[in-house]
Design goal:
alpha+beta, 15% strand, binds zinc ion
Amino acid sequence: MGLFRLLTFILVVLVAWRMIKNYQAKVKADRPQKKIPVREKIVKCEYCTTHIPEDEAIADGEIWFCKQEHKELFYQNNS
Ligand SMILES: [Zn+2]
C-alpha cells in the first residue's frame, strides 16, 4: 500500500505541476501586448514658440515653424 500511495502522490504532483505550467502559459498568452505608441516628435515654432507635431510643422533645416507665415516673419525680423 505504501508504493501505491507514493505513486498517487507523484501523480498528483505531476498533474499539479502541469496545471501550474498551463496556467502560466495561459496568463502569458492572455497578457495584452502593450503597444508603445509612436510618440510624435514635438517641435517648437521658432517665431511664436508654439509646440506642434513635427508632421504639421514647416521645417527649414533644423528650424521649425507652425505655419508658413511665421517662417516668413521670422526671416523678416532677422534680416
Ligand atoms: Zn508660430
